[in-house]
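Question: does this match?
>
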Amino acid sequence: MHDARYQHGLQQLAQVAGTDQPAIVAALADISPDLAYFTVAFGYGDIYARPGLTPHQRQLATIAALAALGNARPQLVFHLHGALNVGCTPAEIVETLIHLVGYAGFPAALNGIFAAEEVLRARGITLEAPATPETEPGERYRRGWAALEKIDGAAGQRVIESLRDIAPDLGRYIVEFGFGDIYTRPGLDLTTREIVTVAALAAMGTALPQLKVHIHGLLNVGGTRTAVVETFIHIAVYAGFPAAINATLAAKEVLRERDGTHPA
């Protein structure tokens, strides 16, 4: 079964794993060698090798999806190592997990951070956490509203407006915390933040309206149609084809709504 797809996949997997003897092949050899083959040939030979996303973006999207799902810690640990192996910085990894707070919740972010701590400690890496700067009253909201307008545009503004007559404080928290505190942090550029956001939302599959808002957001901050679609194809490996199909159909609606104004 060691055909060209498998060999190509093995090369891709070796970059992520940091070794030309990936453990997954030996681990499955006596119980399901076919699953090992599919993992390598499809997951890496077909999917990871595709253009449209860099290895750096693929690994951060994978971490976001796995941490948001919260049901595959061994694979999350593997891909945390993988992110470092393909050149992601420890700060980018930590920031990706902090970013998930607004979409998958504090438990998912905390569990992801603890897994990252384990990986960094195993590799002898220490990370100095930057201090959160103090802000004047009202500054968080102003900063958050500016970020929301830039990233999500009219789609995000409609979300906040829709909450005014039922839960205005929720709208304020989204602006102040989600955008004022989180989106304005250093460590990830806006395009990467939106890639990890749509990856997490697509993987969870429980927030289609918010996924559409952030597909708009990814396009608004310079992401391409290719990056949007490629992120969802990539997610099929970790969250399954139904999640990937639903996210891609949501993207189709967003792109139609934008009437072809997105970059190619």
